[in-house]
Amino acid sequence: MTVSNASPAAAAETLILNPHDGVPITALRYAARGPVRGHLVVAGATGVPQLFYKAFAEFASAHGYTTLTLDYRGIGLSRPASLKGFRMAYLDWAHQDLVAAVDAMAHESLPLFMVGHSFGGHAFGLLPNAERVARFYTFATGAGWHGWMPFAERLKVAIMWHIVGPLLVRWHGYLAWSRLGFGEDLPLGVYRDWKHWCRYPRYFFDDPAMSHVAAHFDRITTPIVAANALDDLWASPASRDAFMAGYRNTRWQAVDIDPAQRGLGPIGHMGYFRRKSEPLWREVLDWFGKHESFPVVRGASS
Predict the structure, then answer these.
(1) Whole-number mean pLDDT of the chain?
(2) What percentage of residues in the chain have a pLDDT greater than 70?
(3) What totals of helices (H) and strands (E) does the chain contain, helices first?
(4) Distance CA 123, CA 98 (A)
(5) Is-contact 124 138, C-beta < 8 A?
(6) Which DSSP symbol is given to 7?
(7) Among 46, 119, 224, 293, which is most exposed with the fewest C-beta within 10 angstroms?
(8) At residue 135, does pLDDT exceed 90?
(9) pLDDT tens digit string along 152-211?
């Protein structure tokens, strides 16, 4: 199947997901237009609110995919009244929030797909219900280690982790990232875990306290594509390859995106989901369309 032009999707419906630990998560559901080709979950990046993925979600829904975005706990529409004193672990976003999203979108007669961004590629290997996902396509997933970055970016990251971040956390009780224009504020637990794992060349795979993670990733057999732009300073192809090696028992394909050659303009770490990257979105949906048991259901509940 090749994705063609289609009209924009209708307005999103607000849903409240209920993870097993009882923390309510706010999601937006974009109903498929026309023949329903499948369901899709967008697993976003750290500190990026779900509305950032609205254009992609509308594009996917206009091409027959009922699409769910969500704000992880502590972020965007799922943020509590105050982040000060809000307690959670970084991987709750995978173990709790994304698990609930997959369960909510799984359908007995339609395939379920997932698109990840950065953290989304980490989270997929941790899902106990990942077998419900037929195919997974992730952008900008890397190991997070500063050593994979160009020298100038390493310095910026070092300043963030060792000077600016600790000062913001001491002042506010959480990482007040919005004051720097970097994105959503992050709960304290997210900041601490993220900073710790970024010390390692292969992220949490190299953390002795996280040795159990490998077994979770070994259960994954879902086909995966991991696409990274050559101008992504935070998640270069080398960084991606270091992390994605953890998916040892599945077929995963590396895609290196040359923005200049593709005529897309700068992509960096965030441009994958801006409207200028629509050609990349078409490739994602085309790949989903090659799923071996792919149905097109007319009149099915979306």
Answers:
(1) 92
(2) 93
(3) 11, 8
(4) 8
(5) yes
(6) P
(7) 293
(8) yes
(9) 999 999 998 999 999 999 999 999 988 877 778 999 999 999 999 999 999 999 999 999
- In single-letter form, the type of residue at position 195 comes to K
Dist CA 33 CA 61 (whole Å): 6
Q: What is the pLDDT of residues 53-64, one digit of tens each?
A: 999 999 999 999
Output the CA–CA distances (angstroms, integers) from residue 246 to 190, 213, 251, 276, in the order listed. Answer: 21, 9, 12, 31
Cα separation, 208 vs 182, in Å, equals 30
Separation CA 44–CA 98 (nearest Å): 10
**CB-side exposure of 140: number of CA atoms within 13 Å?**
22
- Length of the chain, please? 302
| 224: enclosing H helix or E strand | strand 224-229
pTM value is 0.92
CA pair distance 272, 5, nearest whole angstrom: 19
CB 293 within 8 A of CB 134: yes
CATH 2.40.320.10 fits 13-144+212-288, yes or no: no
**Please, are residues 218 and 248 in contact by the beta-carbon 8 Å criterion?**
yes
Q: List, in sequence order, the alpha helices (H) in 173-230.
A: 188-197, 213-218
d(CA 49, CA 70): 8
Structure tokens at 157: 């990251």
SS3 152: helix
pLDDT, average across residues 10-34 = 94
Rounded to whole angstroms, the Cα distance separating 136 from 284 reads 9
pLDDT bin (cut points 50, 70, 90) of residue 281 is very high
Question: Is residue 121's pLDDT more than 80?
Answer: yes
Evaluated on CA atoms 254, 293, 116, 202, the torsion sign reads negative
**How much is the average pLDDT of 4-22?**
77
